[in-house]
Every structure is written in structure tokens, then in C-alpha cells.
Fold each of these.
Amino acid sequence: MNRLKETLTDFINHLRVERNLAANTIESYQIDLNRYLAYLESLEIQNPDAVEISHVIAFIRELHDVPLAPRSISRNLSAIRMYHRFMMNEGYIQKDVTENIDLPKLPARLPKVLEIHEMEAILNVINTETDLGRRDRAMLELLYACGLRISELLDLRLSNVYLNHGWLRIFGKGSKERVVPMGAEAREWLKHYLTYVRYTLAQKSIESEDVVFLNARGKPLSRMGVWKIIQQYIKAAKITKKVSPHTFRHSFATHLLEGGADLRAVQEMLGHSDISTTQIYTHLDREYLKEVHKTFHPRERRHD
């Protein structure tokens, strides 16, 4: 009997039920830990107490040899450590062999953002003479104005839209709730969509329920559907950068900080539990300041 597989099943259930993690996050943990258990099984290790620190280190070395990207290796090690900590807390093992293995230091990866004029070009290229164009304008305005994750946009319900007050009630990672201001432009486009477009789309399917954004068949939009919509407008606006729905969130945060917004206010709007996650955008802000300095300082201009 492979006791490790049993404990992994318990761990995944723990993440789903007690930690209430998102489905995508749980799937990533499962993939990484299945690879880890397959390696241990190749060494004929099936009992949690038989795992030693040398086995974990050897597995990480194998990931290096694949080669796996440093961030992927760090993610794997993080999953392994959490899994062993769980087994320790539940009494499956007497000692956590991973507690003294440190996560590697990784350089901060700066997210790609759109310039303000690029964002305006994308929004202005949308044909708002059509119902789907008006839907798309409302959707992209919200992504940019509120810094929403794609999952938050797709999960948005009519009951969580407060048009009169200009707020959205958002349920983020781990079902954490926050309230986000819409801004006048996004609010007007959303109001127009809800008033003149959504009702027409919703008549085409009984699956619309109270989901805000629907596809042409009246069903809730999918991640791939939104990605394709964005790519259509990126191409039409002649923007060569790689742009995803998350790029709108990165741009939202960066443009706020460049405009002088308080870091903690941005943290609240993004729904980050730790301000260090939000601070990556200050690196982008510093790069912007360096560029301004280089462009406008008289001593810098002498070197052009």
C-alpha cells in the first residue's frame, strides 16, 4: 500500500475544503506533487516516514537537470514543503525533513504593462455600434479601471454590482471579499451594457443566471473567450506587445502608482493580503522615474 498517495489525497482535500484555494492553484499543487511522488516511487519509497532530506535534494537536482525554470523549481519546492508540513501536523510523520531547506532567492519578475496611450488605443478601436462591441468596451473598461483578475471578472454577478454608488463587490483568491471603485468611464459603459445589451444576450440561454458578462449565445464568457476578444483588439490597435487579461491588472496598478496613489490603497484595490506583493509595482514606478529623469534632466540630455 502506497501511504504517500493516501496522504497526498488528504492534503489536496485539505487545500480544497479547509484552505479554500482556487481550483487552478490546487491543480498546480497536484501536478507538482504527483511528479514528486513518482520520483519517490522510483526509489521504492511509499511510506512518508521513509523520506529523507537527501531524497528531496536529489529530486530538486533532477528538476534542475530537466531543465526546469528557476521559478518552476521554486514552486515545486514550496509545494513539497507545504505537503510535508501538513503530514507533520496530521501525525503522518514524526519529523519534517524539508524544514531546513530554504527556497531559492529569485529575481523580481516585473510584469509587462501597457502605456496609457496604448490602453486608450485598445479601448477606442472597439466598435461600439454593435451589441458585442458595447459588451467588450464595458468588460475591458472594468478590467482596467478596477484591476480585476480574469476569474473575478468572469465570476462577477449582477447582485454584486452597485451602479448607483460606483462600486463592485469582488470575491478574490480564497473567496476574500473586497469592494472596488469603478470610476466614471467604466461605470457608464457598464451601465450601458446592462441596460441595452445584456438582456438581449440573456434571452438566448437559460444558463446566463445572474452572471454579468455573457457570450453571443447568452452563456457565461470563458477565459479563452476573453483572451480571444483581447487579442482581436490588440491586433486592431497595432500593438506588438504580448497582452493578456492580467496585463490590464498590471497596468491598472502601475498607472495608479505613477500618478501618485498610495501603495496601501493600491494593495486594497488589488486584493493583495501582503503589501510586498504590491511592491513589485514600485519597481516599475522607479523605472518610469528613471526614464523621466533621463529624458528631461539637462545633464542627462547632454549625453543624447
Note: The chain has a mean pLDDT of 86.
Amino acid sequence: MNEQALAWDDYRFVLAVGRAGSLNGAAKLLTVSHPTVFRRINAIERSLGARLFERAREGYAPTPTGEEVIAVAAEIETRIAATERRLAGLDARPSGKVRLTTVEPLLYGVLPPLLARFRVAHPGIVLELITDNAVRDLSRREADLALRPGGKPPEGLIGRKVARMATGVYRPRSLRLPRGARPDDLADYDWLVPDGNLAHIGMAQWLRHKQYDRRTVFSANSLIALRDAAACGMGLTVLPCYLGDAERRLARVGDPVAGLAADLWLLSHPDLRRTERMRVFADALREGLAALQPMFDGRG
């Protein structure tokens, strides 16, 4: 086998199939079509004269040769990303592109005004926003900065807490509850529950602990979907206060739930600390979010 016959783009395709375990998954990672991945992998195997993946109904599993090529590809990717970070860290100009990854709910009433003000102040910086519930790899430059709720930052990243977010139970205004109803005494009502890749978050765990999930009538992997379904009268749900309080068709039940508050972290890679565009953007986010703390607390 002659691995030197492969270009970096070939390694990228092999690495994507190895990580995804399927052609469809690799196509999504590479933002190309399924047939393109199929053709490239077949061409690479012909070029090497070796099979890299075993095809099965369950997906693509690497052969021992494939595992070797995947390991080489991952090492090359790591070196390229490290070089790009070092070069980006030498850039002292407040211009260029900044890629921010965050969760979808923060786009509703929180981030857009901050981003708009930043663009006015720094027209030379182009912002790219990636919103999903997946954790983007900052080491591989899938994003430059991450704004996410959670615990301490992963090893190898710099993290700063920029806000503390309260969480509450919300009812449709059309649903009347007994006077003095509290979040701890709502087992007789229909509930809307976080599911899928949100099934692990504190709100979902609290619902399971209270056994409210036994009355699940709707579940979704989107807090926006849960908020909108509750606003349409489908049942009760749990939401961050900044998201639930902003919806006039909802009313909070009692005070925010003790123990469900979460820290909002701004994460970055150490190699980008001296990049001027990253610094000014991170500073703007920290200042803007700090000013919104009353909204995150559920006080305004």
C-alpha cells in the first residue's frame, strides 16, 4: 500500500467515513452528496490497491488497513488545525472572519441585537454563526468560539462564565391552575418534554425525577418547539426563563426551579487568545451578556 499516493482531500474523505460510519453521515460532514463520497472512496481504494472499509447493512466499518489510514488522516488534520490556529493567533488586525457556535434558543431575543451592535462597531469583521446542539470541535477549527450552557470547559480550552441562567415551569395562559400552584405539584397535567439529543440536559432529568414524563404528550429535541407547542396550549413545559418569559402566551408557574440554573460559558482555544478579532468579539459578547443578567435570572 502506498499512502503517499493520497492527497489531503483523499484523507479527508476516508476520515469522514471512518468517523461517521456511513456514506450519508460522511456526506453531511463534508457537505457533499452521497454519490460523491461513494465514488471517492472507491477511487481511493483502487489507487491504494487495498480495501479500507467493509460494507454492511449497518454501515461502513474500517478494515485494519482502513484504521491505519484513518489514524494518519487524523494526525494530519490535527497538525493542519494547529498550524492554522498559530497563524490566526499572530493576526493583530480587527478584521476577518469569526465563527461562533451556540445553541438555537440563544438566537431568540438574546444574540441578534448583540451581533448587530458588534457589526456596527467592527465592520471589518465577518461573523459566521453555527447553531445546533452538537459540540463543535474548537481544536479542529470547526468554530473559533463556542457559547454554551454547561459545566466547566473541556480540557485544552479557555472558558469564562458570562451569565447564570434560571429555569422555570411554564403553562399556556389558557390553562388555569389552582391558586398558589408550585412546580413541585403538577403531576396531574400534560407535559411537553425535551427528547433526543436534549434528553440528557438538566430540565429533562428534573422531569424524569418528578415523574412528570409519565404524562408526556409531546416531545422534541428543540426548546423552541417545546415553547411554541406550550404557547399553543398543548401542556406544561420547562424552559430557560429568558426564553419562557419572552413568550406572552405563556405564564411561569411559581419561582424558577431551584437546582436547574445553569452557567453560560464562552469557550475558545488558547492559540487564538492574541487574535485581535477574537478578542474584541469575545469582549463584546461578555459585556453584552452581562448586561442581560436580569433577563437570564427571570427578573426582566
Note: The first strand starts at residue 53 and ends at 56.
Amino acid sequence: MASARRIDWIDAAKGVCILAVVLYHFNQMVLQQIDFGQTAIPTLWNLIITALKPLRMPLFFLISGFLASRSIISRGWGEIRTSRVANLLWVYVLWVGLYWLFTESVIEPLDVDVVAAGAHPDSIGGFAAQLLVADTGLWYLYALVLYFATCKLLQHLKHPAVLSIGLGVVLHLGSSLWLPPQWWNIGSLLDYLFFFAIGCHLKPLIDRHYVQCDMRRLLITGALTLVALGIAWKLSALEAPGVKLVLALLMVSTTIDLFAWLTERFRMALLCDVGRRTLPIYVIHKLLIFALVAIMPEALNVEGAFGNGVLAMTPLAMTVLIGALCLLAHRGLNRGPGRVLFTMPHTFRRVAYRTGLLQPVH
């Protein structure tokens, strides 16, 4: 029973994380680009989404490290290259290419102004450079590959947990202290190794202490989170070196306990199902948001109390709708030849096996 509960809170938390990513991008690319006059609702939504920033990706990467722990610690390089690295790289390169083609053939000809759509290289060389430096909205997949490889390399040295987590702290602080804001892509790659390494190497601790909700710990970390967020906000220090690290640890602990408590008491089958299928939502959702950029300003041009009510519910409703449409698209695409959109083709795998580049997973 303990194992089932643990999986449930992981899936539920992953579901919330991916929906928070969709909400963030909808707010950034649609809601915040519309002038609503004196209406305060978009500002309130922006405040809520900004407050969730220390949680959204740290928790996502911590869970990813947790789920990858056995592969990194107990399996050989061949299995890592096949089941983790190769497939992630395939999906990353393929979907960055699809976004590039979509922008080239649809966005630019229609002259749609998509804020935060990411860089759009005008050559194959620029496209390759974009892939290497993760200057793309799909950087999370690339980061996972780098973190897998880093933790696996360090696994062969003495004290791999200390080295991996320590390196994560150094990179996180270095990113905050010295990296220019416009290098957001490099900063993203440097910021989250710490959380992936914690999930990977502290899996036994998480298994032991977070398999069930500790209500006292939940109340303490929840209170500390609210106090720390308030102070950081007042001092404009949310991005200060070390501050976002402490905030993230508090918020991650609080959220894990919260979902352990929720999944012990309620069936959260729908949210858990979303958490088990985060990849299609992650790679597809921005394409849907691109389409919304052209129509949402007109659709939200509603005045009065009714208009405010619609506006207040729109970010949450659109997040759920976009997530559902992504899963529906995945169901239609992930069959026959369409499977190559989400999984490395068997032909490529067979060639890699024959050449020794990859090894089958046993």
C-alpha cells in the first residue's frame, strides 16, 4: 500500500507541475500581452504564477531525478543511453524542428506577434546552435539529458551524491550571481541540476520520510513558505542568490506532503493520469497557445461584472482545455507512423544496436 500511495503522489504532483507550465506560458504569451485597462485580475494572476516559480520546475526535476534514480545508480551506460538519453534527444531534436518549421511556414507568413516564442534561426547552422545552447521552449528535455549524463558520470567517483548535489548548488549560485539575464537558456540548464540530483540520490530518504504526509512538517514548511515568500517579495529578492533555492526547497517539501495527504484521502485518478502523460502536453501545448494569440484578445473583450468573472476563470479554464487537447492530439498521433513523434523509431534503434552505439534494455 505504501508503494501505491507513493506513486500516486508522484503522478499527481507531476500533473500539477505540467499544468503549471501550461498556465505560465498562457499567462506569458496571451494574458499579459492584452491591455485590460484598470482591471486588476491579470495582475493578480501574474502574481500567483510568479509566486509558483520557485516550485514549478524544481519539483518537476526532483521527481524526474527520483524516477531516474535506479537507472543512474544501478544500470549500465548502455541502458541509460537507450532508455533515457537517446529517446529524449530524439524527441527534443524532432520537436524543436517541428516548432521551427511551424514558425517558418505559419507564424511568420501570418505576421502573428508571439511574445516569448523563442529564437527563430534563419539557417540550419543557427538551428543546430539553438539545439546545443537550449535556446528553445523545449529546453527541459535537453536538461534531462545533461543531468542524466552528469549524475551517471559522477556515479563512478567517490561520494557521488555529495558531488552531484554540491555541483548543483555551485551551478545554481553561479547562474544567479554571474549570468546575464538574457542568457535565460543557459541559466535554466544550470539552475536545476541540484533538484534532479536530490531526487536521484536522496530517493531512500524521500521514500522513508515522504511516503505519507507528516502533518506537522506540512504546517511548518507551509508557514515558512508563506513568510519567506512575503519577505522575498517585499525586498524584491525572489531571484537573489540562494533565496530561490531556499524557497524552492520549502515549497517542494510542502507540496510533496500536501499531495501525499490528498492522495491518501481522495481518488485523484484524472490528475494522476495527466502526471503519467506529461511529455505530450509539454511538447504540444505551445503550438496551441500560438494559435490562441490571434483570437484571445477579441474573445476576452468583455466588460462589466460578467466580463471580470470570465477573465478571472479564463487562465485556469484554458490551462485545463489546452492540457486536454494535447492529450487528445497525442491519442490520435501516437499510433502507426505517428509514434515517431514521441518515441525513437525502431529502425534507428536497430541500427544503433548493431553498431554498438546503444544496447537493448534488459
Note: The radius of gyration is 21 Å.
Amino acid sequence: MTEPAADLPLRDVVAALESLYPLDTAADWDRVGLVTGDPDQPVRRVLVALDPTLEVIAEAAAWGADLLVTHHPLLLRGVHSVATTSAKGASVTALVKAGIALWVGHTNADVAEPGVSTVLADALGLLRQRPLSTEGGHPAGRVGELPESVALSDFAAAVAAALPDTAAGIRVSGDPGATVSTVAVMGGSGDDRFDDVRASGADVYVTADLRHHPVLEAREEARGGRPFLVDAGHWATEWLWTASARDRLVSALEQSGGATRVETRVSAIRTEPWTFVVGANAARDDRAAPEPGGVS
């Protein structure tokens, strides 16, 4: 009679995750790795998500997950209380009460190969990829070539088709008819990388969380030309990583013989915070300000 396989301890799953996303590659300010959980507790189900929100934690508990793996940290800044009167405290309490361990791969997942930006570049079909820049000796962002040159408007439509839908959609700064072929990408917030993008020679830069002043200055520096800018949303540009992380974890566990003992799933919860927009005009590029008190 064959003996049933022993439970896989959390420490083994964590070791597999940290072989893929080493903690020492994270930025100094980041807070990654094991947040809750006992290294000796058994892991039979792993849920992968972008954000450790209360709704995602509830999903993990309802499914019976023993481990939640997320990209964004739960406790990035100092916390002096985990009382349930705050969302952070309620999250920690929910994890502990349900016996769910939490492991975070943030900037260490950004610079991994493949990492967050690699997955985004692959989704956009970029060829001959190379790093956009380096962080502490590790690659950050990607630059690659489209199979053929296309109009900026068509490229933006392709970006929208490759990423999950969001209420805010895709924001673009540039001439819709201009042709683009070289693309830089940075999953998540990326308006601190404009110098790197210019140095890369990219025609267009796809990232998220683009703020008014950095974008205006970047477009002024470009004199209206390249690089054009595409803001595809933080959640959308990073969400694709969850499936990649899940698949890579399964492969790592297979090498150690543990994959058959662990069930994995990508969260079905959309943690995109925006729910609707009003008054968007996708084609507007007039430079006239509205009349005071008027409607634009």
C-alpha cells in the first residue's frame, strides 16, 4: 500500500517562491517576504493575487487557502496597531484567524526574469527585449520591438486588447497617426523613468500612474514628438503577473516533488479601485481652455 504524501510545509513553498523572487533583490524601502504564517504549517492550497485586500482574503478563506501570495505589500508603512478598527488590522486579523499565511513579492518580482514588466512586454508581443534600466544591478522595465510599425492609435488599441478592461481605460499622449515600433514598458508606477525611456530610443512608453507635472514636462522635453506616453493603469499593467507567478511556482515545486501536493489558483477578485468615469473624450486634443464657468 502506497503511503500518502506528507503535507508540504510552508517553509518549502516559501523557499520555492524566494528562489524565483529573491528577497535581497527588493528595494531597500520595500517590505517583502513572509508576513503572516508559521513556517511549519501545512500548505495544500495557494491563492495568487495582486493585492491583499479584505475581499481577496475572504476569497482565500472561503476557498480554504493556506497561503496567499500577492504582489503588493500589506504592511509597507509603519503600523502601530492591528486592531480591526482599521482595514490593515482587519486584514491581519482575518489572515491569522483563518490560518492563512501571506507572502509578498513586490520590487523583487519587478526585477525578476521574468518579472512584472517582462510579462507585460510579452503580452504586447515585443521582440528583441532588453532591460530599460537597472536597479541595484538588476534589470528594471523592458524595451522591445513591435513585429511591424503601427500608428500610435492602433498600438493603444492593441494595449487595451492585451490587458484586462478597466473603468479608466487607456490614456494616451501623442499624435494618434504617428508610427511607433520601439516600445518601453514599466508595469505599475513609472513616471520616474522618463530619462531612461528617452535614453532607450523608445517611440512610446507604456506604464501607469502618470501624474500631470511629470507628464507635461516629459511632453515639453519631447517637443510634442517621441516618446509618446500610454497610461494603461496600475492594476491592469501588473495583473498579468499573477498567472505568471502561479505557473512559475508550480514549476518550482515540481522540481522539488511538491507540486502534486499543492493546489494553486489565481484570484478572481478585481482589485482595480476605479469603478467608473464621467465625461471622458478619447479623441480630444484641442488646446483651448473652457470658458470660465462653462462646460468643456
Note: The mean pLDDT is 93.
